[in-house]
Amino acid sequence: VVDNLSLDGNTIGSTGDIILDPNGTGSVVVSTQLLLDNLLLDNNVISTTAATISSIVIVGHSGTVVRSDDTGKSFASQTLPFSGSVNDVSKISHRVGVAVGAAGAVAWTKNAGVTWTTVQPSGLTEAMNGVAMLSDQSAVAVGNAGSVIRTVNSGVTWTTVSSGTTKNLNALSFSDELNGVAVGDTGVALKTSDGGLSWLES
Fold first, then answer.
1. Which is nearest to 90 in space by CA: 128, 53, 56, 43?
2. 1-10 long-range CB contacts below 8 Å, 24 or more apart?
3. What pTM value is reported for the model?
4. What does the pLDDT look like over 124-147, one tens digit per residue?
5. Secondary structure of residue 61 in the 3-state scheme
6. Which end of the chain is more exposed for a tag (fewer CB within 10 A), N or C?
7. How do residues 53-109 score in pLDDT, each as one tens digit?
8. How far apart are CA 171 and CA 69, in angstroms?
9. Please, is 78 exposed, middle or buried when counting C-beta atoms within 10 Å of its C-beta (0-12, 13-18, 19+)?
């Protein structure tokens, strides 16, 4: 595996090779069935249990989704109906997660990534680069040109929120359902204390 990156004791290579240590014992499972470039890591393992990995979902470019239901012994590929790359994914539970990508694309799963429902937030054309789930029904996403969107109904509808900046926002993180930080180009950093309804530069 080339250029390995580690996530929770598991490793994904830049060529798409996946090495898993499902029990944390050093006994690894190696999968080279799918050689997919540019698999994204960060928060992209949607389905992980506390002690063992059962259902795993990883997203990549061109709408690629790789999932396993047998602790990584085998993987199958899916493709989200995205027109471009999937840039980030976030999960709140074993089953519920959301993915964002190019041209404002958003997809929601309620079954650990088996199926995804996509939506194009009204008027949004900018790439969404980061997303954070706050509950089973609410999430906040950030993107290019200071774009911020928010949902409170499981991704059915999204509301555009003013961020106060036109700089690209590339990632965000929440410590709880109210308090979060978004960061972007040229060191811009925004904070929210109301679940993403309003933002202040910090």
1. 43
2. 5/41, 7/41, 7/42, 7/44, 7/45, 8/45, 8/48, 10/45, 10/53, 10/72
3. 0.73
4. 889 999 999 999 999 999 999 999
5. helix
6. C
7. 556 666 666 666 777 777 666 777 776 777 677 788 888 777 788 888 888 889 888
8. 29
9. middle
